[in-house]
Amino acid sequence: MAKVQIKVNDNGSLRITGDIELLDGEGNVFETKPVFSLCRCGLSNNKPFCDGTHKGKFESAVRAPVKDSEQA
């Protein structure tokens, strides 16, 4: 099975790359492409997808913790 990648973009969306199935709360399937972005700010008019409305209105730069072995 190929690995799916989810990238938390600075001040923006969650960028999804890979073959996944995206479902709503009732189990209905959203049509997706191999690469798409999900809204993280709540401002999109095309939820759950990002439409760029966040630009200049949303700030978040999340970083994963650095493991001890990577600090060298």
From TrEMBL:
The keyword Metal-binding applies. SMART domains: ZnF_CDGSH (SM00704). Coiled coil: none annotated. Residues 15-60 form the Iron-binding zinc finger CDGSH type domain. One of its GO terms (molecular function) is 2 iron, 2 sulfur cluster binding. Keywords: 2Fe-2S, Iron, Iron-sulfur, Metal-binding. Pfam families: zf-CDGSH. The keyword Transmembrane does not apply. GO terms for cellular component: cytoplasm. This is Zinc finger domain-containing protein. It comes from Mesobacillus campisalis.
